[in-house]
What we know:
Blueprint: E1 3-5, E2 8-9, E3 13-15, H1 18-27, E4 35-39, E5 44-52, E6 59-67, E7 75-80, H2 86-99, E8 103-108, H3 120-132, E9 140-141, E10 145-146, H4 147-153, E11 161-165, E12 175-176, H5 177-182, E13 188-193, H6 201-209, E14 213-216, H7 224-239
Parallel strand pairs: 1-4, 7-8, 7-13, 8-9, 8-10, 11-13, 11-14, 12-14
Antiparallel strand pairs: 2-3, 3-6, 4-5, 5-6
Helix pairs in contact: 2-3, 2-7
Amino acid sequence: MELFYTTEVDGQFCQFDEVESGHMVKVLRHKVGDKIFVVDGRGSRYSCELLDASPKHAQARVLTVDNLWGAHDYRLTLGVCPTKNNDRYEWFAEKATEIGVDGIVPLIGEHSERRIFKKERVSRILVSAMKQSLKAQLPEIRDAVSVEEFIEEVREDRGSLKLIAYCFEGEKERISIKQALEDYSGRSVIVLIGPEGDFSVREAELAVEAGFIPVHLGNSRLRTETAAVTAAEAAYFRYM
């Protein structure tokens, strides 16, 4: 199924930007009268008829709407420190979108090697991953914040299951993320994943004091991006 993306939907008509219009008309050769499917990034899929096959500003008429199309019935927020190699972070964001994630928060930790994060390219990757995986909800990707700032932001969130995955051996008792998810009866999960150098002791202590549960992701030592995808998969299999 081909999916096209636009935020310009007024209930009756969809307008497309030059990138999406060009792909629709020049690459896929759609013509006036063709039936197309459109997602808005807010959870709805539209069945439409193409009215204007301009490669710069195509337009379609909405025929039917499916709300919450391709949605999952839990909310997952991943706070993940940017990796030294940008490509690895982009890979994580793409795969997490395909699996199911609602929010991605780039975190700058005390041990972070990359302290600047530009979200524009990642945002484009998320759109492509959303369409490829047959979803209509686009994950929110935030501007980067410090680990401490994000911990304080969610400190008073008593309803979500808050988890921190880190590698300090023997300092604190940890349970598996699988067990933590199975013991939780709600459907809102926040997971923190550290940088290549892991969270600092201070950051881990702040998180635990704010209600985060220390968890491990298995016996293997995982890269940041692999750990984040593993966390997304754990939530997916818990609620599927």
